[in-house]
Amino acid sequence: MIRFGPDRPRRRPNLTPMIDVVFLLLVFFMLASRFGTDRALPVATAGTGGSYSGPPRLVELAPAGLRLNGVTVTPDALVAGLERLTESGSDVIVLRARDGADLQALVAVMDRLSAAGFSRLVLVP
């Protein structure tokens, strides 16, 4: 039997690179996850029932601005105009986002109307 030298002890695998990768993945997913709770806006969609009475109350949001029943208004004048058209805060207000309207602007209008006491906002396509 031929011997080529003494047997070398087996090397144990180095786990440091694997631990580094796991740590980096942990940090990535911690930073990429969302913290806190999401905020939900209660919105009824068209066709979910209920009745509509009174004058028209159509709020259109377009890239160019806001319109109340076809008349361009500022966000401050929108609340005042809707208060003239409603009897109470539970009257239905129809919201329509036109082509190219910004979602954040729609949410801002809904927040403004909710803060003014309007509770029945209906979003139509």
TrEMBL record:
Pfam families, per database record: ExbD
Compartment list: Cell membrane
InterPro entries according to UniProt: ExbD
GO cellular component terms attached to this protein's record: plasma membrane
UniProt keywords, alphabetically: Cell membrane, Membrane, Protein transport, Transmembrane, Transmembrane helix, Transport
Family from the record: Belongs to the ExbD/TolR family.
Membrane topology: Single-pass membrane protein; Single-pass type II membrane protein
Record-level Gene Ontology MF annotations: transmembrane transporter activity
Any one GO BP annotation for this protein: protein transport
Listed name of the protein: Biopolymer transport protein ExbD
Coiled-coil spans in chain: none
